[in-house]
Write a structure and sequence with these properties.
By secondary structure, this protein is an alpha+beta fold. It contains four helices and five strands. Helix 1 packs antiparallel against helix 2 and helix 2 packs antiparallel against helix 4. About 14% of the residues have low confidence.
Length: 146
């Protein structure tokens, strides 16, 4: 599958559109129907986190998404342009689920990252001086048709 790129202005209303587009591409990429809700929710959390970070630090910069599929995997990368130490919570890794059991991860950013980690099959979060990238992937049953 070729890479699909999407960018949108940092407005909460555009998160819904991003979720709809990602879900359609995931379906065409062979992601099983039962996983589509997980894709939609995880991408919504990642996009909402990026929108909030942009609204506080760089409201004129767009949030970017890359969607790709290879080797029976569907991958979504949500990127913002807020340096890692300024981003929502500045978190480079998702918190451990045990942290929530003991009340250690109570911030909104931490909760969103925990939700993403629970929904995506594989998650990588990279905080760099150029911004934060959240890469999520899920298994695809068939080869991509895009």
């Amino acid at each position: 599958m070729a890479t699909v790129e999407l960018s949108f202005s940092a407005l909460p209303v555009h998160v819904r559109t991003a979720r709809l587009i990602v879900t359609a591409v995931a379906r065409r990429s062979g992601v099983a129907e039962p996983l589509l809700d997980e894709v939609r929710l995880a991408v919504g959390e990642a996009c909402s986190r990026a929108v909030e970070a942009h609204r506080r630090h760089c409201p004129d910069e767009p949030v970017r998404l890359e969607l790709s599929g290879a080797d029976r995997r569907f991958e979504v990368t949500v990127s913002d342009t807020v340096p890692g130490d300024d981003a929502a919570g500045g978190l480079p890794t998702p918190p451990d689920a045990a942290d929530f059991e003991y009340g250690l991860g109570e911030g909104t950013a931490e909760l969103g990252l925990a939700v993403i980690a629970g929904l995506a099959d594989d998650v990588e979060i990279a905080a760099t001086p150029k911004g934060v990238q959240i890469r999520m992937s899920w298994p695809a049953e068939a080869e991509a048709t895009i």
